[in-house]
């Protein structure tokens, strides 16, 4: 029996980003397997297209699998790349990002293959990323650095963002990726980026126009000295502003100005730093909604 759709009702005070990021209908999806492991889900229409494509894909129970021809990660990566070229050519997949993500059975396992970032939601694969809350202590309380995303971005143009954020590509450690993203997005040297403190993970399962996004975000806090102004170097962010937590919370609670998953990271920050307390009627729902 297929799972029933998950539908949510937002609380009156719009911290319902935790719900919006966990809205999906698994009854419309089939299992996707690699090396005998269930690693993702494909939507029914995409499932039919993969069956028609044949090649590296073959039926597997009520789902579909990447056929085992080489038995190696490199061989699977090459087979998937060739299939994606065909899917891009016929318009099924709009285009590729030329950034490779690992396909994992669990965090810390050896990758089964690498796949272009753009194709990850089509196969419903779990992806990983990191988000850094850059904050400053002032006499009147904590202030958070807020990025305004460039309006030419393919994802969330013009929305508000964390100081540093990025997907976790294949072949880099988290520490290496954090240094890279900190330099590109905020102009921070490695010595500053290395002061970032890991504070936990956020996970959600979101359905979008391409498929499913079962994402895990590694969260970090980075306290910065007052007067250090971040500077974007890769064109992703137009500018940074330093906001007091009251303004941050008001914006998250009452607007749709933030990139869809950054809301979650900010809510987590507000909880951990005591701004959002158990007195709030949605406190338990919010805490549990950050790690579904």
UniProtKB/TrEMBL annotation:
CDD domains: NUDIX_Tnr3_like. It comes from the Bacteria. SUPFAM superfamilies: Nudix (SSF55811). One of its GO terms (molecular function) is 8-oxo-dGDP phosphatase activity. This is Nudix family protein, putative. Residues 127-268 form the Nudix hydrolase domain. It comes from Rhodospirillum centenum (strain ATCC 51521 / SW). Signal peptide: none annotated.
């Amino acid at each position: 029996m297929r799972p029933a759709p998950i539908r949510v009702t937002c609380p009156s005070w719009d911290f319902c980003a935790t719900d919006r990021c966990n809205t999906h209908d698994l009854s419309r999806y089939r299992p996707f397997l690699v090396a005998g492991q269930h690693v993702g889900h494909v939507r029914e229409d995409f499932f039919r297209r993969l069956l028609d494509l044949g090649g590296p894909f073959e039926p597997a129970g009520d789902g579909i699998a990447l056929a085992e021809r080489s038995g190696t990660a490199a061989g699977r990566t090459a087979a998937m790349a060739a299939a994606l070229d065909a899917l891009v050519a016929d318009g099924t997949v709009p285009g590729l990002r030329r950034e490779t993500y690992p396909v994992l059975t669990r965090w810390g396992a050896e990758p089964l293959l690498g796949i272009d970032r753009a194709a990850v939601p089509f196969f419903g694969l779990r992806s990983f990323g990191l988000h850094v809350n850059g904050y400053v202590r002032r006499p009147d309380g904590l202030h958070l650095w807020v990025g305004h995303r460039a309006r030419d971005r393919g994802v969330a143009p013009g929305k508000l963002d964390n100081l540093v954020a990025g997907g976790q590509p294949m072949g880099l450690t988290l520490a290496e990726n954090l240094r890279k993203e900190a330099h590109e997005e905020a102009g921070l040297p490695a010595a500053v980026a290395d002061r970032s403190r890991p504070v936990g993970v956020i996970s959600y399962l979101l359905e979008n126009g391409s498929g499913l996004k079962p994402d895990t975000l590694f969260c970090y806090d980075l306290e910065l000295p007052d007067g250090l102004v971040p500077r974007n170097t890769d064109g992703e962010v137009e500018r940074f502003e330093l906001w007091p937590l009251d303004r941050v919370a008001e914006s998250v609670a009452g607007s749709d100005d933030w990139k869809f998953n950054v809301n979650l990271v900010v809510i987590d920050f507000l909880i951990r730093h005591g701004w959002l307390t158990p007195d709030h009627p949605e406190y338990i729902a919010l805490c549990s909604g950050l790690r579904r």
